[in-house]
Amino acid sequence: LALDVSKGVTKYIAASRTEIEEKGRRGKALGGWDKLKDAAAIEAELANGQFMDLLRWNADGKVENGYILDQRHMTGGAPVEAQGWLEAGIWTVEMKRPLRPGTAGDLDLEPGKVYNFGFAIHDDYTNARFHHVSLGYKLALDNADAEVNAVQASVSAPAAGAAPVAAAAPVAVAAAPSAAAAGKAVDTGVDWSKAGERLITLFYPGQTSMEWTLVGKYHGGARPFQAGDRCSTCHDKETANMGKKMVTGEKAETTPIPGKRPGIPVTVQATHDADNLYLRFQWEGTEHVPVPFVDGGKMDPANQVKLAVMFATDEVKYANQAGCWGTCHEDLRTMPGHPEDPAAAGLALDVSKGVTKYIAASRTEIEEKGRRGKALGGWDKLKDAAAIEAELANGQFMDLLRVNSSDGSTEDGFVLAERMMKGGQGFDASIANDAGYWSVTIKRKLTSDQPGDLSIEPGKVYNFGFAIHDDYTNARFHHVSLGYKLALDNDTAEVNASAQ
């Protein structure tokens, strides 16, 4: 047959065959690869539009334009311009194709008409049928009813045959509500291709306090944890599934928000120069899901997103194993054991909005088992002011940074007796939503002489965790990471801040 079968039979469509067996009755072989029409008939079918137009971009920069009729042809079409790149774990591919190429095997795209559209991705070095494919969709020009609506716009053409690059342009994906960039330009001169990178999936934690994790009837991992295991040892690859249990109300959540996503995959990059640590967080945004038990559906209408980061040494109880979980207790505001009137205790705490985060070093005791009906936690077992001051001086705190999306403002504080959102040396940050993807960049000095600020030194390893309040949420209705290890130029650290 007049086919190139050097690599086997390739794709074909029905118009190229005299018959195709589609039912396989009486043992007939399915298909019709060998029932090829003659060359003249194939040529006539091509002229009559019986083909599938085919474009392909390859990660080495090669672009192919062909079609499928009697077989898969990877050449013959009009020139197509395309480029692609991988940045922060996200691939972007852009194509520029003439609407009316006027070439055999190329489909002219005209206003007022609707076309069939599909695409496939060979990822992770695969080939042939080992790809991921879309279903068939409808594409049209300026047609809101089409599933893929190509809206007329002024765009810049990509460079023809551009090679893939790392850390080049901002990620571009399907359009979504955007927020203006806020904050300072903090990474001028930073080469992000030199940064360490890790994909961390945050999850919705519900009402799983530190005490909850230590009680076997609530948490099956209580015994391994008490034996010294880290949370990430067991759960690093299953955070999305954990979040699903909580966000649906199946486990440890008394007020679920219908439609709230269970997890957020976040690309985390870390690098440093002689003076500063740079962190960049990138993740996909979400459509707004109104909170049914809040007027207006938004807990924090001013801030669509807040991102918080915590650092601590191993000296802070549970930081080594659980990261920031050691600050979350059963008796905090909105948690099951929160006090109704904390101000009545007369403690030297700001409880105007309820009890906030604290660590064990600030209390004389914390009830962790709840035996004989004892209330979990220890919010009211506060040490005196002198003892608190001494603990702070001894490094008993969780350093806390937060960035707000409304205006790019930053807060630099710490957690000890309560959550303090000020007192640190300060840091610079930018936050932006670009085409549905959020990006937060933090520039923080490596060293500080301020109480509650952790100095980050070469050769040492620190506990690191972060949380995102997305979709206008507040308090415990966030997505959180497990605890990870951060260090400078240390390949064994889970978050390795590589040198510039």
Description:
This protein folds into two domains: 153 residues, no CATH class; 318 residues, Immunoglobulin-like (Sandwich). Helix content is 9%, strand content 27%. The chain is built from seven helices and 25 strands. The strands form five sheets. Strands 12, 13, 14, 15, 16, 17, 18, 19, 20, 21, 22, 23, 24 and 25 form a 14-stranded mixed β-sheet that branches. A three-stranded antiparallel β-sheet has the order 1-2-3, with no helix packed on it. It has a three-stranded mixed β-sheet with strand order 5-4-11, with no helix packed on it. The radius of gyration is 29 Å and the shape is elongated.
- What is the overall shape? elongated
What Rg do the Cα atoms give?
A: 29 Å
What amount of the residues lies in strands?
Answer: 25-35%
Uncertain parts? 155-179
Structural class: mainly beta
Q: Can you give the mean pLDDT?
A: 92
- Our count of helices gives 7
Distance between the amino and carboxyl termini? 59 Å
**CATH class bucket of the largest domain:** Mainly Beta
Query: What is the helix fraction of residues, given as a range?
Result: under 10%
Largest sheet: 14 strands, mixed
What fold name stands as the CATH topology of the largest domain?
Immunoglobulin-like
CATH architecture of the largest domain: Sandwich
Summarize the helices and strands and which ones pair or pack:
Elements: H1 39-47, E1 52-57, E2 63-68, E3 72-73, E4 81-87, E5 90-96, E6 114-117, E7 120-121, E8 132-133, E9 137-141, E10 148-150, E11 165-166, E12 182-183, E13 196-203, H2 210-214, H3 222-226, H4 231-235, H5 239-247, E14 263-272, E15 276-284, E16 306-312, H6 319-322, H7 385-393, E17 398-404, E18 410-415, E19 419-420, E20 428-434, E21 437-445, E22 461-469, E23 479-480, E24 484-488, E25 495-499
